[in-house]
Amino acid sequence: MAQQKLYAGAKLREMRLRLSLTQKEFAAKLGVSLPYLNQMENNNRPVSTTVVLALAQEFGLDVTELSAGDSERLVSDMREVMADPVFADDTPPMADLRLTASNAPALARALLTLHRAYRQTHERLASLDEALGREDARIQASPWEEVRDFFHYCDNYIDAVDRAAENFCGRLDARSAAIAALDQAGISVVFGDIDGLRKFDPAGKVLRLSNRASPQTQLFQLLLQVALLHQNDLLEATLDFAKFHSDAARSIAKIGLANYFAGAAMMPYRQFLEAAVECRHDLELLSTRFGASIEQVAHRLSTLQRPGAKGVPFFFVRVDQAGTITKRHSATRLQFARFGGACPLWNVHRAFETPGRFLRQLAETPDGVRYISLARDVSKPGGSFGSPVRRYAIALGCEVRHADALVYADTLDVSQDSAYEPIGISCRICERRDCHQRSVPPLERRLSIDTDQRGVLPYEVS
């Protein structure tokens, strides 16, 4: 099989600007001519092996950054945008989308922002009677979407926060380290029967935690408070770098970064990565060893993307009972739909039917990439009679080429074509013609409608 050429002009240019080097200086350090570097940065030539080696030897850069990250995400996100009926007559081919993502990523992101504003305009018009007269009726990006995209395009890995969390505990366990840090600040920790999970009184210097919560949740909330108090400067500096468009988005992101710190402190990067490799990513063993919940462990596995020390690239998603995606991240080529739910053929939806059990699935997406997916329900009891139970399902998976690293792949015959179930991302960008669960027609396909007969679908896809 011919080796795929690596076109990574935008990434190469980003690395050069990060190092504050001119093209001439960068070319000299890489041992190539100035015109050759210019051609690579403009994707007129692939990045050569010589340049890849020079990047690693001269600058100590993780060269996997050249081929991973934004491009696949941008292509997937643009495909979903182009599935909007407004583009029905002017849909660009995939080659153009890939070219835009690799050569003009800023333009691609601008398109996503524009489409998001367009969607919000329609949503406001649909409820015009409610929006009229409101001061906040102007079009603006949803703070939740803005924060979601921030973590999405950071590969769900925040290096400075992750390293700070890793260094936080020292020789102490996470719980002892958190109690010691709060005690040093003169803060008392009280466990009681309270509404919610955590209440902090800055004036009285009292942190109250719910005794209804699980030990894992209590520890997480302890560490989250530590992050807000002891890592505030780091969190604010990270937020300054992100340049959010609203105070609401910045506030949401700060909680997100504090959550990130808490998870990374419970499961320090190197220690957790070594344990994950050793037990072949057994979520239950990792949960017991690090005192974390199954969901916390699965989420942490999806963040192991530190340059030079990357783990298995996983996707991680959480859905509610309606199929709405409430958390999503992918370090793989599989990218989730930005709007709406996930493919109904995916095993994450069946997890609600088998509580307490892990479901395994071998799946293949329309682009021919094969995955192993693990799904399980995660219920969150309210802690008392009559309190509502929050029910979700999570899925964790990776490309099947990493199957040997997963205990969950044992006894699965990954070599059999018939073992793989066909799944998609979103019906509008899934090109499968004969899917019995299709809800809307696929993009870029003509439909044939015969009034004299009816199959599984009311139309046939050409």
TrEMBL record:
Keywords: DNA-binding, Transcription, Transcription regulation. Residues 12-66 form the HTH cro/C1-type domain. InterPro entries: Cro/C1-type_HTH, HTH_RamB, IrrE_HExxH, Lambda_DNA-bd_dom_sf, ScfR_C, TransReg_Diox_bact_type. One of its GO terms (cellular component) is cytosol. PROSITE patterns: HTH_CROC1 (PS50943). It holds the Pfam family Peptidase_M78. GO terms for molecular function: DNA binding; DNA-binding transcription factor activity. Belongs to the short-chain fatty acyl-CoA assimilation regulator (ScfR) family. This is Transcriptional regulator. It comes from Phaeobacter piscinae. The lineage of its organism: Bacteria, Pseudomonadati, Pseudomonadota, Alphaproteobacteria, Rhodobacterales.
